[in-house]
Amino acid sequence: MPHPKNITSAEDEALILDSIDQFLERDVRPHAHDLEAGDVYPQAIADKLAEMGMYGATISPEYGGLGLSASTYAKVVERVSAVWMSVSGLFNAHLIMAAAVERAGTEEQKQKWLPRFASGELRGGVALTEPDCGTDLQ
Predict the structure, then answer these.
(1) What 3-state DSSP class applies to 136?
(2) DSSP symbol at 42
(3) Distance from CA of residue 31 to its chain's centroid?
(4) Model pTM?
(5) pLDDT in tens, 100-138
(6) Which of 26, 73, 97, 135 is at 20 to 30 A from 128, Cα to Cα?
(7) How many CB atoms lie within 10 A of CB 74?
(8) What is the pLDDT of residues 76-105, one digit of tens each?
(9) What secondary structure, in 3-state letters, does 65-134 show?
(10) Are 125 and 93 contacting, i.e. CB atoms less than 8 angstroms apart?
């Protein structure tokens, strides 16, 4: 994938999407059915996502992320979800947590957590509930 500081053009976006498409066809599609049916965590796929920088897809380059635009990121998620939706969950929930830190964290928190989130060294998650409705039905 292009270096984060160079992701500025339609050409760069095309390179990113092409990299994603190749990854999906080579590393995800051939294994998706068996992994899903066997309820097996796709560790090799998760590791490859880290190598590709996907755990830092929307994190600012200042903190080691790719800094993808919302439209480019949406295209990535669309492609991944079309092949195996569960894989998008590996980085999507993580990036929601990273966005919370990037938008509302102190500079100290950003420096401490975002580079580690961007590299995939640490993965964030989000838990939520709606008392008396939604996910908390009694």
Answers:
(1) strand
(2) -
(3) 19
(4) 0.86
(5) 999 999 999 999 999 999 999 999 888 777 777 766 555
(6) 73
(7) 11
(8) 999 999 999 999 999 999 999 999 999 999
(9) CCCCCHHHHHHHHHHHHHHHHHHHHHHHHHHHHHHHHHHHCCHHHHHHHHHHHHHCCCCCCCCCCCECCC
(10) yes
Q: Domains, the chain, ranges and CATH?
A: 4-119 (1.10.540.10)
- The first and second tokens of residue 64, run together, are 């080691």
Are 129 and 103 within 8 A, CB to CB?
A: no
Q: How far is CA 111 from the centre of its chain?
A: 19
Residue among 57, 50, 46 nearest 96 (CA): 57
The neighbour count for residue 76, using CB atoms within 10 Å, is: 23
- List the structure tokens of 118: 């961007």
Taken as a whole, the chain contains a residue count of: 138
